[in-house]
Amino acid sequence: MDDRRTVKVSKYVSKHLRHQPERIGLVLDPQGWVEIDDLLAAAAAHRFPISRAELDHVVAANDKQRFAVQGTRIRASQGHTVPVDLDLPDAEPPAYLYHGTVAAALAAIRAEGLRPMARHHVHLSPDRETATRVGARRGRPVVLAVDAGAMRAAGHVFRISANGVWLTDAVPPQFLRFP
């Protein structure tokens, strides 16, 4: 499977497991799972056939490990805009986590902190390198440090997804360290 097809399949699966399952007739269970056979049949019925081998390759090769497979089911690891409960336990974060963004967003972030926007949670990275890659998707990256230890001490809850992305409801501005 070439790189272009891998990216195209990954984006298609992400879109329908995270944002628009109903568009192709999928019904996610409360934790976001769907039968793999149902996903493949729905994709084929909507003129985007995906083989099981292609799906397995996308799941295994995805650099961000966006998908989780459990037996005969698949789900997106995080980033949903549709209602799901990933049933992730509370986790003790490291002292600092990181968030990649761009300069154009800094004024709003300084005023309001980090908000989940259309997603369920704010996504945080465990290291500066990952946050830099995340921020670079939208332009020249700016990496913010999040004082996760102080947030946790103040009662904020953190969870970690299967692919190592840290999730929290919001990050108030006082817990952010700007470059």
TrEMBL record:
Pfam families named in the record: PTS_2-RNA (PF01885)
GO molecular function: NAD+ poly-ADP-ribosyltransferase activity; tRNA 2'-phosphotransferase activity
SUPFAM superfamilies: ADP-ribosylation
EC class: transferase
Highest rank taxon of the organism: Bacteria
E.C. numbers: 2.7.1.-
Keywords, in A-Z order: NAD, Transferase
GO biological process, one term: tRNA splicing, via endonucleolytic cleavage and ligation
HAMAP family, sorted: KptA (MF_00299)
Family membership: Belongs to the KptA/TPT1 family.
Role played: Removes the 2'-phosphate from RNA via an intermediate in which the phosphate is ADP-ribosylated by NAD followed by a presumed transesterification to release the RNA and generate ADP-ribose 1''-2''-cyclic phosphate (APPR>P). May function as an ADP-ribosylase.
The protein, known as: Probable RNA 2'-phosphotransferase
Source species of the chain: Streptomyces roseus
Gene expressing this chain: kptA
